[in-house]
Design a protein that fits this description.
Shape: globular
Number of domains: 2
Strand order of the largest sheet: 5-4-6-7-1-8-13-12-11
Distance between the termini: 19 Å
CATH architecture of the largest domain: 3-Layer(aba) Sandwich
Bound molecules: coenzyme A
Order of helices and strands: EEHHEHEHEHEEEEHEHEHHHEE
Number of helices: 10
Largest sheet: 9 strands, mixed
Radius of gyration: 19 Å
Helix content: 25-40%
C-alpha cells in the first residue's frame, strides 16, 4: 500500500456576508440575535450570488485553484476530481465535471458523491483508497454547497443554520510530508432518513406545481432529533477510530468536527473530555455549509497554525441519511 497524504488545502466563501439580523429585520421572521447565537453559535454566514459565478462549481473551482497553487502543481497533473455536495449545479451532469473542465484538469475523471454533511469524509476515504492502491496519484477532493438553493426562508428552525462555501484538498501518493491519512470509520443508518431530508426533486416526487406549492424542494428537519443523534454518533465514531489505533482522546491534538451547531460541538467535547481549545470551530463565521464545513475548517486550522508536526488530527462528521464518520490524520 502506498502512503496517502493530504498535501494542500484551499477555500472559497461568497463575498456576501449575512448577519443574523437579516432573518428578523429583512425577512421578518420571528427570531432574534440572542436565540440564534445561543442555540446555534452562528453570527454570520455567506450567501452565494450565482450571477457573480458563485455557483457550487464556481466556488469549487476557486477553492481548488488556491489549493493547486499552494501545492505547486498544475490541474493537468490531477488524476481525479471528487465533489461532495447535496447542492449540485444541475441534476445532470455532475458538478465535478464542470469543475474538471473549468480547472483544465484534462487527464482527470470526475464524479460527485452524496453523503450530505458526511460527504467530505466519505470522499476523502474514496480518494485515499484510490491513492493507496495506485489507481490514482493525485485527487482533488472538494466539499461544496450552495445551501441557499434548498433553504426555506419561511422555516426559522432551519434557514438560520446554513451557509454557502467550498473547501478543496489535494490527496497525493507521497512517501513523506503533508498530513498522512491514516484511517477512517464510516457508518450509515437509513432509519433516520425522514428526520433530515428534501422530499421532492428526485424520482419519487419529480418537480411539479404541487411539489412546489407544498414547499417540498426545501430541506426539512426534526432539529431536536438530529441534534441528539449527531452528538451520540460523532462521539461514538471518534472513540471507535481511536480505539482501533490503541489511542484515547488524550492522544488527540486537534478535532476538526462538522460545524453543525456550537452546542453539538461542545456536547461532543464534553463527552470525550476534549477541551474546546483542541477543537477547531468556525461555525460562528461560516455557519453550517454541509459538505464544506470540514475542508474549510481544516484549511482555516492550517492557516492559523493550529496543526504542528507530529499532531494527531481527527475529522468527525454526522449528516442526513443518517451518515457519520471519522478520519485520523497524522501531521
Ligand atoms: N428563533 C426563535 N425561536 C425558534 C427558532 C428561531 N429561529 N427556531 C425554533 N424556535 C422555537 C421553536 O419553535 C420552539 O418553540 P416552542 O417551544 O414554542 O415550540 C423553541 O424555539 C425550541 O425549539 P427546539 O427545536 O427545541 O430548539 P432547539 O434548542 O432544539 O434548537 C435547532 C433548534 C434547530 C437550532 C437545534 O435543534 C439544532 O441545531 N439541531 C440540529 C440541526 C442540525 O444541525 N442540522 C444539520 C445537521 S448536519
Amino acid at each position: 500500500m502506498l502512503r496517502a497524504a493530504l498535501t494542500a488545502t484551499g477555500r472559497y466563501f461568497p463575498t456576501r456576508v449575512v448577519p443574523n439580523s437579516y432573518f428578523y429585520d429583512d425577512l421578518g421572521l420571528e427570531t432574534n440575535e440572542e436565540w440564534i447565537r445561543s442555540r446555534t453559535g452562528v453570527i454570520t454566514r455567506h450567501f452565494a450570488d450565482a450571477a457573480a459565478g458563485e455557483t457550487t462549481s464556481g466556488m469549487c473551482v476557486r477553492a481548488a485553484q488556491q489549493c493547486l497553487e499552494r501545492a505547486g502543481i498544475d490541474a493537468d497533473q490531477l488524476d481525479g476530481v471528487i465533489v461532495a455536495t447535496i447542492t449540485p449545479d444541475q441534476a445532470l451532469p455532475s458538478t465535478a465535471c464542470f469543475v474538471q473542465e473549468a480547472l483544465g484538469a484534462k487527464g482527470a475523471w470526475a464524479f460527485d458523491l452524496v453523503a450530505a454533511c458526511s460527504g467530505y469524509v466519505y470522499a476523502l476515504a474514496q480518494a485515499t483508497s484510490m491513492v493507496r492502491t495506485g489507481l490514482a496519484k493525485r485527487v482533488m477532493v472538494i466539499g461544496a454547497e450552495t445551501m441557499t438553493s434548498i433553504l426555506d426562508f419561511e422555516d426559522r428552525n432551519t434557514c438560520i443554520i446554513f451557509g454557502d462555501g467550498a473547501g478543496a484538498t489535494l490527496v497525493e501518493a507521497k512517501e513523506t510530508g503533508g498530513l498522512e491519512i491514516v484511517d477512517f470509520r464510516m457508518h450509515s443508518a437509513g432509519s433516520g432518513a425522514d428526520l433530515l431530508m428534501i422530499p421532492a426533486g428526485g424520482a419519487t416526487h419529480p418537480a411539479s406545481a404541487e411539489t412546489i406549492d407544498a414547499r417540498m424542494h426545501y430541506v426539512k428537519q426534526d432539529g431536536r432529533a438530529v441534534f441528539k443523534h449527531a452528538v451520540t454518533r460523532i462521539s461514538q465514531v471518534i472513540v471507535e477510530l481511536l480505539e482501533g489505533h490503541g489511542m484515547t482522546a488524550s492522544d488527540v491534538d486537534l478535532v476538526v468536527p462538522h460545524q453543525a451547531n456550537i452546542r453539538i460541538i461542545e456536547a461532543c467535547g464534553r463527552r470525550l473530555k476534549i477541551p474546546m481549545d483542541q477543537i477547531a470551530v468556525t461555525v460562528h463565521q461560516w455557519a453550517n455549509t454541509t459538505a464544506a464545513t470540514i475542508p474549510t475548517t481544516l484549511d482555516w486550522a492550517l492557516e492559523e497554525g493550529r496543526i504542528n508536526p507530529g499532531d494527531n488530527v481527527v475529522l468527525a462528521t454526522f449528516g442526513a441519511g443518517f451518515t457519520w464518520g471519522s478520519a485520523l490524520l497524522k501531521a
